[in-house]
């Protein structure tokens, strides 16, 4: 085929593609068989052969090509369309053309390919990718990968806990299996200065994770189709369109057995035995090996999760102590005893809590719920809330220090500034030109300033719409609570339901409503999460962030804002809205003009908030474990069952990995999101639920091992990625920590009954002898209940039925601080009400200022970077200047060396040596600066 024929073919294909995109012709007609391009059209006139064909050499553990020399750095899997009989064959020819174009592009870039058929499925083809030494050096320089230049010569500081090593060594991975790695000073790789780097062997200089990362970088940017000025590239698009079925790096061995090949490190097996296996649940994580095998991004996640779990242990001990204190004092609590006392609580008749159908009830019917409330609503709660406010500050500050240490040890200190490249999706859309404000040169961008504004505005509008949708669902659940409370109250208070009599002491309308509403709220949360996830990903893709970090940060913010409202809105309603605007029996407040607002239990709404937190935290943990563990395990089991006919055949390493589950596109995003939402429950509402850190600790101990087991045994090897820190989650955690102080102070002030008790104790109580100098809590319950004359009920609120024991009563009680009927200020707020309000506001102001001041002092006193790490960073920079940059100085000095005919004249000049020496020193100083 001549060049003119090829140009004519390309023009025809362009025209047909445009017509197909406009819908004017069938897309299947775009690529007829005779128009498929050959490799001569791909590589600018030179012939490129196809990938080498090789049969499996019956070495299942081999990580090399058939020659046993070239290492497999990546694997591509596709289905051979020629083996299938489809009606739309031309669409598959188009896929084949794109695949061949991509493979030819890879070979043009210097990569070597070898294709092998599947052992058990003739339709599958595995294309193994190898990166030669020159290609590795080139892309290591492009990606600014840091590599060792010389061993670390700084003396390590001895640990202050070294005298406990005889005990602590049992909680670390076995040193015989996972030894400590040698420490090196590193510098960004430069191909022309290879002699300055610590190269023992070319085969081992670049680790497998580095090689896989470079291979994926090339695959993400290799073109698979070029039409005029439009260039399409990236393995991601080909995976999405079905051209390739999978693309992944290889595990180095089976997780439960050593490799039969000699010289393999078997790092996957070591990770399974010392990290992912249930028997190792008590051991510290081998973070350096995790980072080496899976990359820095996976390593930093498990480092953060482990550090968070370790800090939770302290919070769990204090929280458990507060719970035990509350549990032991529930029987001796004055207010719970008064509620349960037949002479006090049994004599107090409460007003109906809904219109018409509800009836009068005795206070002692809430005896059990009052006892349970005392477990969580006691003076230790205040201490624990303040402790958690300080704890969260210490957690964030110490994590910054630990993170700084990991940044140095894992060579990610300057990662964001010099390593991160644009996303392929971003580069593919760069069709507009602009002047770079820094370099003043032309550069291509995917959108104009106006287009950027439109994209961001659409994203913000969509997020706000979904947040309003969540709020609408919360209102719907509130309406459900009101309607169900009405129904439960009518049944549980009815006289004629004798069968419910044994349960009346334990089942209250408030409790029954709270439990069912919590379950429904959890279901709604899960459904909205599934729907919004797709919307958030679509919006972020539409916004087209430049780098992967920017993409993840944008998606993180959207998902967290949504989940924050989704998970916490019902809790905020119970904590700060329920029971706050109910009016009084004569003039109740209605929602939507129909439903009478809910009232809290006489002891407050704290027990309902505790119930809500328990249901959501427990349900979320169970649901996540089902999704993360059970589903991939079941899928792998089903596949093994379906392929058991070929189980006698020996499968190569690449095919064994293909049958594992693929990692999602967002990787660890959902793992972080799950933990940050849990962090919110632990910190925002801990004043109402001191057991939250205990539940979080138990969940995280399982979460670490479950995540480890999952990625080690059930999933293909993750493409290693660099990461400097935990990204956008860090400021989110800081924001949650700041909000937690105000949230817990307001829960203690407005949701718990602590402030009214203190006000009563110090201002309104009397000793049995009528002496204010000896205050007591006796009579507190009676002081919190106002009196209402039943004759003042409106016709719409008056109960239809009255119990037999109420026939001679003329008043009932309700929870509020109002003057009784007959008073000059009948049903108006009493003096005690204003005392309580003033005390609540004063409490919030004082506690917030004290805690925020403590947080500020701790943040200032604790430096973000340890002194030892600062010294190591400075030492490394100095060595980089001395070793690497002095090479430039030698080149400059060599250029300044005079020609032979000038040497005699230079030698005659006495000042020449001094000038040259000064010039050389000038260059040296400048380079070192």
TrEMBL record:
Domain Anoctamin transmembrane: start-end pairs: 290-876
Gene Ontology CC annotations of this record: plasma membrane
Molecular function terms, GO-annotated: chloride channel activity; protein dimerization activity
Annotated region described as Disordered, given as residue ranges: 895-929
Entry keywords, A to Z: Cell membrane, Glycoprotein, Membrane, Transmembrane, Transmembrane helix
Main localization (coarse): membrane
Feature: compositional bias, Acidic residues: 912-922
Domain Anoctamin dimerisation: from-to ranges: 64-287
Coiled-coil portions: none
Entry membrane topology: Multi-pass membrane protein
Keyword Transmembrane: yes
Cell compartment(s), UniProt: Cell membrane; Membrane
Biological process per Gene Ontology, one example term: calcium activated phosphatidylserine scrambling
Transmembrane parts of this sequence: 301-327, 379-399, 464-490, 511-532, 555-576, 675-698, 732-751
InterPro entries: Anoct_dimer, Anoctamin, Anoctamin_TM
Residues in the signal sequence: none
PANTHER family, sorted: ANOCTAMIN, ANOCTAMIN-6
Family statement drawn from the similarity comment of this UniProt entry: Belongs to the anoctamin family.
UniProt-recorded name of the protein: Anoctamin
């Amino acid at each position: 085929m001549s060049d003119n024929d090829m140009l004519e073919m390309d023009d025809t294909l362009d025209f047909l593609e445009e017509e197909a995109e406009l819908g004017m012709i069938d897309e299947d007609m775009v690529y007829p068989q005779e128009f498929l391009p050959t490799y001569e059209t791909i590589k600018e006139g030179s012939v490129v052969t196809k990938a080498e064909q090789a049969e499996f050499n019956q070495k299942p553990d081999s990580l090399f090509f058939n020659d046993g020399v070239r290492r497999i750095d990546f694997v591509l899997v596709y289905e051979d369309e020629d083996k299938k009989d489809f009606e739309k064959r031309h669409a598959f020819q188009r896929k084949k053309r794109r695949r061949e174009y991509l493979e030819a592009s890879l070979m043009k870039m210097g990569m070597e390919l070898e294709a092998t058929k599947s052992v058990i499925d003739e339709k599958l083809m595995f294309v193994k990718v190898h990166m030669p030494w020159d290609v590795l050096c080139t892309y290591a320089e492009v990606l600014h990968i840091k590599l060792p230049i010389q061993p670390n010569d700084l003396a390590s500081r001895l640990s202050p806990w070294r005298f406990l090593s005889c005990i602590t060594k049992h909680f670390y991975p076995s040193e015989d299996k996972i030894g400590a790695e040698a420490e090196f000073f590193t510098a960004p790789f430069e191909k022309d200065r290879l002699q300055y780097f610590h190269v023992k062997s070319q085969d081992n200089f670049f680790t497998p994770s580095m090689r896989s990362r470079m291979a994926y970088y090339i695959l993400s940017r290799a073109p698979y189709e070029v039409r005029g000025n439009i260039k399409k590239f990236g393995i991601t698009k080909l995976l999405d369109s079905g051209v390739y079925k999978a693309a992944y790096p290889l595990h180095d061995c089976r997780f439960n057995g050593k490799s039969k090949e000699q010289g393999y490190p078997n790092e996957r097996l070591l990770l399974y035995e010392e990290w992912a296996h249930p028997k190792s649940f008590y051991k510290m994580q081998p973070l350096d090996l995790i980072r080496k095998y899976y990359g820095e991004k996976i390593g930093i996640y498990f480092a953060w999760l482990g550090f968070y779990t370790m800090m939770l242990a302290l919070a769990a001990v204090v929280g458990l102590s507060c719970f035990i204190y509350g549990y032991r004092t529930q029987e001796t609590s004055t207010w719970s005893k008064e509620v349960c006392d037949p002479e006090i609580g049994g004599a107090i008749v409460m007003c109906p809590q809904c219109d018409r159908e509800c009836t009068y009830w005795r206070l002692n019917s809430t005896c059990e719920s009052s006892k349970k409330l005392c477990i969580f609503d006691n003076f230790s709660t205040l201490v624990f809330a303040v402790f958690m406010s300080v704890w969260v500050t210490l957690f964030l500050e110490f994590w910054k220090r630990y993170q700084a240490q990991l940044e140095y040890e894992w060579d990610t200190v300057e990662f964001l500034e010099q390593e991160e490249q644009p996303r392929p999706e971003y580069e593919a859309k760069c069709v507009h030109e602009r002047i770079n404000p820094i370099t003043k040169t032309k550069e291509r961008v995917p959108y104009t300033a106006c287009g950027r504004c439109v994209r961001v505005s659409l994203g913000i509008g969509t997020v706000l719409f979904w947040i309003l949708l969540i709020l609408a669902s919360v209102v719907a659940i509130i309406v459900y609570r009101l309607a169900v409370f009405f129904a439960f109250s009518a049944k549980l208070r009815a006289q004629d339901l004798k069968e419910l009599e044994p349960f009346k002491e334990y089942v209250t309308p408030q409790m029954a409503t709270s439990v069912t509403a919590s379950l429904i709220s959890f279901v709604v949360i899960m459904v909205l999460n599934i729907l919004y996830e797709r919307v958030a990903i679509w919006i972020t893709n539409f916004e087209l962030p430049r780098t992967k970090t920017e993409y993840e940060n944008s998606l993180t913010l959207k998902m967290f804002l949504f989940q924050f409202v989704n998970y916490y809105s019902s809790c905020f309603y119970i904590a700060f809205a329920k029971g706050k605007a109910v009016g009084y029996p004569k003039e109740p407040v209605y929602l939507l003009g129909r439903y009478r607002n809910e009232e809290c239990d006489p002891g407050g709404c704290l027990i309902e908030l505790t119930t809500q937190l328990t249901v959501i935290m427990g349900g979320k943990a169970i649901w996540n474990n089902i999704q993360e563990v059970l589903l991939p395990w079941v899928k792998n089991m089903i596949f093994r069952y379906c392929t058991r006919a070929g189980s006698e055949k020996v499968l190569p390493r690449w095919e064994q990995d293909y049958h594992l589950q693929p990692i999602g596109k967002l990787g660890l995003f959902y793992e972080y999101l799950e933990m940050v939402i849990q962090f919110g429950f632990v910190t925002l509402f801990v004043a109402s639920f001191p057991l939250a850190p205990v539940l979080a600790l138990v969940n995280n101990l399982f979460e670490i091992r479950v995540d480890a087991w999952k990625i080690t045994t059930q999933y293909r090897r993750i493409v290693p990625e660099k990461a400097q820190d935990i990204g956008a989650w860090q400021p989110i955690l800081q924001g949650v920590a700041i909000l937690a102080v105000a949230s817990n102070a307001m829960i203690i002030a407005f949701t718990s009954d602590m402030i009214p008790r203190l006000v009563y104790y110090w201002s309104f109580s009397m000793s049995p002898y009528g002496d204010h100098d000896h205050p007591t809590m006796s009579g507190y319950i009676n002081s919190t209940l106002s009196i209402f004359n039943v004759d003042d009920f409106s016709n719409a609120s008056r109960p239809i039925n009255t119990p037999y024991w109420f026939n001679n009563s003329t008043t009932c009680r309700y929870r509020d601080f109002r003057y009784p009927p007959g008073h000059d200020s009948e049903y108006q707020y009493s003096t005690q009400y204003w005392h309580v309000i003033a005390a609540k506001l004063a409490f919030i102001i004082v506690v917030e200022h004290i805690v925020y001041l403590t947080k500020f002092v701790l943040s200032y006193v604790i430096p973000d970077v340890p002194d030892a790490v600062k010294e190591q960073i400075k030492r490394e920079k100095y060595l980089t200047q001395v070793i690497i940059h002095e090479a430039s100085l030698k080149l400059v000095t060599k250029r300044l060396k005079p020609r032979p005919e000038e040497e005699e004249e230079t030698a005659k000049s006495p000042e020449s040596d001094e000038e040259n020496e000064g010039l050389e020193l000038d260059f040296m100083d400048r380079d070192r600066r």
